[in-house]
Amino acid sequence: MDWQTPEDAVPSAFVTESNRRALAALPPATGAWRLGDPAGDRLFAGIGDVPLERGGVVPDAVIAYETWGELNAAGDNAVLVLHALTGDSHVIGPAGPGHPTAGWWSGMVGAGAPLDPAEWFIVAPNMLGGCQGSTGPASIAPDGEEWGARFPYLTIRDQVEAQRLFAERIGIERWALVIGGSMGGMQALEWAVTHPERVERLAVLAAPPISSADQIALNSVQSEAIRMDPAFDGGAYYDAPDGGGPHRGLALARRMALLNYRSPTELNDRFERSWQSGLSPLGGGGVFAVESYLGFHGNKFTRRFDANSYLVLVDAMNSHDVGRDRGGVAAALARVTARTLVLGVDSDRLFPVPGQQIIARHIAGNIDGDAPVVVSSPYGHDAFLIEDALVGAELRRLLAR
């Protein structure tokens, strides 16, 4: 999933003059943050070698992160915010040098929001394998070249292990809340199962207990779109000049993903059968508005993400099975001791509500007994990032002391 951007908010606003100028320029070979780029609001923490579930390590790993607020004297007000597949550490704040997009969750974090820095010490890391400052495929490997397609296979548990090392590096022993949606929700759930003593409260938003065959299939075609782009070059595209790199494949993967993030109702109501220009798509050379929308966001995505990183993170999503080697899902969820909010969206076709029902049924500390909170929204999977009032009210309920 991805966050709600300002141009998503109003159907007619997704092609602005500033966006036109940005997209008119040749894209770089990768949209990853690279050493030498402006740091923006990022901080960096070296966490050493990260041992991997399948063997081996990611050596000398670095986690990029941002924080808001202050850790109190008791050390009991730290909140871990975990982003989704194509997110990063920039939860709030404007776009600018080092940050290609504005913060993705300003409705949930900030002054007066449910996660208010006046009360909470909020920490948001870019996940291991990401491309916005944390060690990933676009980072330099020990041999002095980009990792590229050589980057190790990661699981959700590997990413949580990196986050555990990161927490120790910055001095956090126990989280007052671990919260995440979509892929971040997978990691949040894994935190509470693997380290129950370190998680006081848990919020799992629009995330499943396992990645199903259907979800793995959807991911596989996105990955194949990237690999089939001739400019992918086996993942060795970092030295390509501007305009090089697997932009077509990455943009196509993004367009496929967007269809899973929004509901059919929202797309139909928003775009109907309108077209984008004065030319009819019915033989007149024009395009339907929904095609223009997908094309715009696919092209924009290539300017802020890395194709190899997308492949690594999709594989990590596919690995998700909270019950693997733990006696099954129910047995694994029984380990959770945190006070828990499990939230689903009634129109979510990526991670439908039955997945959240399974999670809620087997966590003893779920705030609604054996049922999840189900938000009614036309926006589909992305509703957990868009429906600030509905999601915020439930988060406040979880945080009530």
The quaternary organization reads as: single chain
How many domains make up the coordinates?
A: 1
Report the mean per-residue pLDDT as an integer.
92
CATH architecture: 3-Layer(aba) Sandwich
The name of the CATH topology is: Rossmann fold
* DSSP strand count: 8
Distance between the termini: 31 Å
| Coarse morphology | globular
Query: How would you characterize the largest beta sheet?
Result: 8 strands, mixed
What's the SSE pattern? HHEEEEHEHEHHHHHHEHEHH
Biggest sheet: strand arrangement: 1-2-4-3-5-6-7-8
Helix content: 25-40%
Report the radius of gyration as a whole number of Å.
Answer: 20 Å
Description:
This protein is of the alpha/beta class and 401 residues long. The chain has a single domain, classed as Alpha/Beta hydrolase fold, catalytic domain (Rossmann fold), CATH 3.40.50. The chain contains 13 helices and 8 strands. It has an 8-stranded mixed β-sheet with strand order 1-2-4-3-5-6-7-8, sandwiched between helices. α3 (156-169) packs across α4 (183-194) and α6 crosses α8 (289-301). The longest helix is centred in the middle third of the chain and has 15 residues, at 213-227. The chain is globular and about 60 Å long. Mean pLDDT is 92; it is low at 1-19.
